[in-house]
Structures are given as C-alpha cells and as structure tokens.
Amino acid sequence: MTEQHASSNSQLSAPGVAVIRNINWGGLSTLYVKEVRRFFKVQLQTIWAPAMSQLLLLVVFTTALGARGEVSVGGVSVPFGTFVAPGLIVMGMLNNAFANASFSLLVGKIQGTIVDYLMPPLSTGELLAALCGGAVTRAFCVGGAVWLAMLAFLGTAMIPQHLLAVLWFGFFGSLMLAFLGVLTSIWGEKFDHAAAITNFVIAPLTLLSGTFYSVDRLAPAFQTVSHFNPFFYVISGFRYGFLGVSDGYASIWTAGTVVLAINVVLGIACYFLLRSGWKIKN
C-alpha cells in the first residue's frame, strides 16, 4: 500500500507544472469562439460596413474613369473595375484582420482585464492561434461580403479562375496582418498606438501596393521599390486568382513563397514576445 501511494505521488505534477500534455482543444476553441462572437455582435460595423465601403470605392473609381477605362496586366488589357475589385476585396480583408487582432490584448491592457488571457491553462501557441484564428475568420467574413457585393456589381468577371491562389493569398495575407496586429497589441499601450500603425504603416503600404494601378506602368526604380512592399505580393497573387495574370515581374510562385516566409518570421516574433511577457506581464 505504501509503495503504491508513493508511486501515485511520483506521477503527480509538481506545483506550477501544466498537467495538459497535449493541445488544450477545449480552451483553444473557447477563446476562438469568444473572439468570433465579439465581432459578430456588432457585425453591421465589423463586416457589412467594410463591404459597403469597398463597393463604394469601386463605384466611384469606375464612374470617374468611365466605361473606356482599362488597365494592362501582364500584357492583357482588362476593364478597370475588374482589375481593381480583387485588390479592394483583399484590402478589406487585411485591414479587418489587423483591426481584430490588435484589439483583444490591447483593450485588456487598457481595461486591466489582460489576466483573462494569461490565467487560463493555454500555452503561448494556443493563445496565439486563437487570437489569429479569430482575426482570419473576420477577414474571410469581410472578404466574402465584399466579394458578393462585387459579384452583383461586375457579374461573372468576379468568378475566380484559380481558387487555390485566392485562398492561399487571402489566408496568408490575413494571417500576416493578424500577426502584425498581435505585435501591435503587445507593444501598444493605448488605442492611439494601434491607430498610428494603421494610418502610417498599413494604409500607405496598402495604397502603394498596386491596388489601384498596375506596377508594370511604373518607372523601373519605383517597380523595384514596390517589390519590397509585402502587400504587393498579397494583392498581386490574389488578383491573379481572379484574372489569371500577375502584376509586376514577380511570378505567382515567388509571391506565394515571399508571403509564406513573412508569415513564418512574424509568427516566430509573436510567439517569443508573448512567451516572454514583454509589456504584458509587467
């Protein structure tokens, strides 16, 4: 009896040592559902309003250029509306992925509820997966709403030719901005910090990535600068999924590899910063 009691005690975990040996699916799914429900409660603001904004941008630009407006992409001339619509879809996805991911931890730090994220038995990877999963889900909800609006406005031109490319660049582009949002929420101490990243980093990179123009028409020096913009690869690859041609000198394989590599780097940075507790546990 004594030997059995000693054996059972030796199998117990020491104080402070996690007893969940594998992935805590229950905790991970609970936090993910919480993140999704949070933006669904105000879906008019978080999903349908961005869709309306992107559709209005399309209407304004196509009306301004008229029916004769065309853009050359990879040597193929396409109507301006058909050219700009995929960029507007993925631009809405990127902006909303960042907005969702940059909110959770930041509002917890400001309101003093950050302990709700730190106390549950979730590993760093599970916490990061739930936060980014909620952001990517919101991005695809917005992207789907924008796509339906564009489909009603432009018709069959909005039917993807390469669905895998649309899903690849839509997913990894949204994940890239989700990682950036998590980094911003770790670093930021007030909402002004997140707004600064949105206004001075994300907005310029998005607008200068070829959303409203073809990079092929730029001077060689500006084409080179555009290829240092990670948003260019996301938008170019996403547009390829609809048009079947890519913008700029980067091939679709190069664009996909660059976006994947950026996600790996940002994911590792998010993981180690969350694990260290920098500006969160202090």
UniProtKB/TrEMBL annotation:
GO cellular component: ATP-binding cassette (ABC) transporter complex
Membrane topology: Multi-pass membrane protein
Domain ABC transmembrane type-2: 41-277
GO MF entry, a single one: ABC-type transporter activity
Keyword Transmembrane helix tagged: yes
Signal peptide feature range: none
Alphabetic keyword roster: Cell membrane, Membrane, Transmembrane, Transmembrane helix, Transport
UniProt xrefs under PROSITE patterns: ABC_TM2
Transmembrane segments: 47-66, 127-154, 166-188, 194-215, 252-274
Annotated compartments: Cell inner membrane; Membrane
Stored Pfam families: ABC2_membrane
Family: Belongs to the ABC-2 integral membrane protein family.
UniProt name for this protein: Transport permease protein
Annotated organism of origin: Sphingomonas turrisvirgatae
